[in-house]
Amino acid sequence: MIRSRGLNPRAREALYGYGFVMIWIVGFVIFTLAPLVQTFFYSLNQVTVSATGINLDYVKWDNYTRALFTDPTFVELLIEYAIETLVSVPIILIFSIIIALFLNLKFRFKGFFRTIFFLPVVITSGPVIQELTAQGATSAPGIAISGAVAEFLAELPRYLRNPVEYLLTSFILILWFSGVQILIYLSSLQKIDQSTYEAAAIDGASAWEAFWKITLPSLSTTTIITAVYTIITLSHFSENKVIKYIYGQTYAVEGGIGYSSAMSFLYFIVLVLLLAVVYLLLNLRARQELR
Amino acid sequence: MKLLRRDSLKSLFLGNRTQYGLIFNVMLYLLLIAIGFVYLYPLLFMFVTSMKSPEDLLNPMVQWIPTEFYTGNYLKAFRVLDYPTTLASSILISVVPSAIQTVVCSVVGYGLARYRFWGKNLTFILILATFIIPAQNTVIPQMLTYRNYGLLGNIFSLILPAMLGQGYKSAIFILIFYQTFLSLPKVLEEAARLDGASDVKIFVQIALPAAIPSYIISIIFSTVWYWNETFLTVIFLEGGLQSLPMQLSKFVQAYENLYPPGTVNIFDRLNEAVKLSGTFLNILPLLLMYFVLQKWFVESVERTGITGE
Prior knowledge:
By secondary structure, chain A is mostly helical.
């Protein structure tokens, strides 16, 4: 206090601000920035871990070219991941909006249904999902792969078949990622001014028109947030095939830390690209709607 | 008279301006129940299967209602998971880091909400970046460092990042507290400052008590996320503490250690009912917590205002 009395208020405020935030900045440097740079450094090396320590052998971009051009599975998994994410995101968002619209109505036992739709957020962990998928519990009841469906799938080209198969076998699982999104939509539905609807009704708008002209445009900012959240959650989920592959390669003889680090960075780049594409698309739409 | 009755009948079925009609209500409940059933289907399937005896599993007639009340699967899964020990360590590695993380994130969130300083926007961008960067981009150097210091398998490997605001999904909690403190009125804090209270004292005695709901929400969400996290825990706790999800992921191996396949009779072999009993035991503590605290969970978004505006 004595020292800060001499400072002007602006500098004093900044000083205390840094005081509060400093712990995070230190943590960021130690636990995020340094390991990130270190991982990038590893990705340019052939890394071997022995009892005496870590041996590095500088190989330039070899790990990257190997992942992109030599490894038969990595690029395939990466493309599969990108397609599956792009398929899942609209499903999750549309489902969340529908459920949020339902829960925004006035009826009894609303709390009960809200509890149900949020439940998966609490129990979703990698091993649990893996167990449920393995027992076939996550495919939509009734449309589990039957002979006819399998035949239809066999006709499709590979890159189309995988996402469709994924949709059929993991349909409920995809919906299970909607919990937080439903709540976010619900709270922004409740923020829409009710008088807008009344004014529209007086002007003769039907509920259908009101939905497309008032409700949906009001949700456009929220949709950007939920879309970004959804992509990140899906991409960080520990059952994600790319993540599992990278993890497996870390300890594999033919892989190693250098190689898996390179793949981690490629995966990160694809994730950022996905985020950018979805963000730009939705932002464009949001602007058009505002106009 | 007749006209009146027709009107009231009409409003009973089709609704009027103040309430929905019967037809609408019935449709609404039917739809919600149908969607709710599909949504919870994996859980129902898991529970029913876990109660089936080996005979019921083989009997194609038994779909939803087992013929007897059979708890054998649970007894086996209980032993395979080494339930009491694993449960205790699961609670330890989820509650302790999340409590620490919550306190640290609240301090950081307060600093961001109440003070103006150079580089604040950059800090925000970096906080969002930590949310986007996948764990595998930072985890290996950390793991190697922990190994050097002998912290691998120790709970400190989870506590240390949490202590410095880099715990699991820290960015979300910082944003929650940022929103919370931003929405609290500043008047009280300014009055206390005029009375000569120090900044730390203002935070601890005035801002913190007003933000208690956010603390509760952060701790329970963080606990749930730490509990369900397996990527970090598998790497950092290697050879040390074993959480329930970790134990579940090597269920087959653990089962065969207890009940070697060659030596047990056919009904004691590992089947899906035992596996699903293990899965159910795994989520049971979370389910209990959820139903006790469900108000805090489902009202979290409204209470903390984390929708971004």
